[in-house]
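Allow me, if you will, to draw on your knowledge of protein folds for a short while. I am sending you one protein, given as its amino acid sequence and as whole-number tokens for its backbone shapes. Kindly check, if you would, that the fold set down in the tokens agrees with what the sequence suggests. The record follows directly beneath this note:
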Amino acid sequence: MGPTETDPGSGEVPASGDNQFVRATANESPVAIASRLDRLSAEATRQEQSLQELQAYFQDQKSLLASIPSIWPTRGWVTSDFGHRLDPYTADQVMHAGLDIAAPHGKDVHAPADGTVVFAGLEGGYGNVLVIDHGYGIKTRYGHLSAILVKPGDKVTRGQKVALVGNTGRSTGPHLHYEVRVNGIAQNPRKFILDE
């Protein structure tokens, strides 16, 4: 007889090297085997649910990373940082809610993260303004634009050209006013930028 054969009269179950369940249940009653199968099935279901939860978690983390405004929206020179400053028109001490980046008129402005355009139009002293909602409570705002290349409802991706630097609104020269807001509160955009 070969290694997996058995004497038909012995009642033994073949014990192949990788069939542990057959070996483990060979001397169990059918009720015990059914109970064990139920437990294994329930464990397999729990493992599958756990795997699906992990998959959803990592997908959400991937989405979160894509939503963080981590690149400069344009290249230029920061002429006014985030924080308190003297207003260039009134000389009053005021809070500056973003960065002013001097750049040539018409220079490309890129989305710093994936998101959805929620506003594109005129807004008081900021002239032509674009607002992108990146999800997770994060929005970016771009002011003084010469042209806006996207419209509300458009989906944008990190690095996509969305506007052009300009001098619209209350502005002392061509530049981009750039803000990052989290749950409506202005944050220092430099805290998010990874490619400095």
